[in-house]
């Protein structure tokens, strides 16, 4: 049997806003994020990297490994000190673009200077278990063509100091 509510209890209940309607089916768990409704939004934009004052900021050492015909394998980087031999060491900053790096690679690689050469960039980094991972991050052509990848900076590619850059030249 239901007890009668006092006048004060009835007034308190009447002052509360009504609860939101619950969808039919499974109960709603308010602690889990709800899936988005409607059409998906635009893809997240890359965070722009703040320009670096190159006169006042110390550059980082970028170890670049080049290979004609494809990227190196992850196994090529598995043992520290036994990285591939075709290495170029570049001192640069996190705001350096793939176009700048392309021009530097062209200085040391005759194949990259060909008019129709395509350079594909990948970062090589250790995962949380210490195993090396290779992730493709962009591509450029020997001749500047104002592609979007030409203007991407290392910082936009989630590059961290100590990562390697693997460049495939085709």
UniProtKB/TrEMBL annotation:
Residues covered by region (Disordered): 1-54
Alphabetized InterPro entries for the sequence: SAP18, SAP18_sf
GO molecular function: transcription corepressor activity
Keywords per UniProt: Repressor, Transcription, Transcription regulation
Record's keyword annotation contains Cell division: no
Compositional bias (Basic and acidic residues): 1-14
Gene3D superfamilies, alphabetized: ASAP complex, SAP18 subunit
Protein name per its UniProtKB record: 18 kDa Sin3-associated polypeptide
């Amino acid at each position: 049997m239901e007890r009668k509510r006092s006048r004060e209890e009835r007034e308190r209940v009447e002052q509360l806003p009504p609860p939101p309607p619950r969808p039919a089916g499974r109960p709603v768990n308010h602690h889990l994020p709800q899936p988005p409704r409607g059409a998906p939004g635009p893809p997240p934009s890359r965070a722009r990297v703040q320009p670096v004052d190159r006169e006042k900021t110390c550059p980082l050492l970028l170890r670049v490994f080049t290979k004609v015909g494809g990227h190196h394998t992850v196994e090529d980087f598995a043992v520290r000190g036994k990285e591939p031999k075709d290495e170029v060491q570049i001192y640069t900053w996190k705001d350096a673009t793939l176009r700048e790096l392309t021009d530097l690679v062209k200085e040391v690689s005759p194949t990259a200077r060909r008019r129709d050469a395509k350079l594909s960039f990948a970062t090589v980094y250790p995962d949380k278990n210490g195993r090396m991972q290779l992730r493709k991050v962009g591509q450029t052509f020997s001749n500047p063509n104002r592609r979007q990848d030409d203007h991407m900076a290392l910082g936009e590619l989630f590059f961290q100091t100590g990562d390697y850059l693997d460049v495939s030249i085709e």
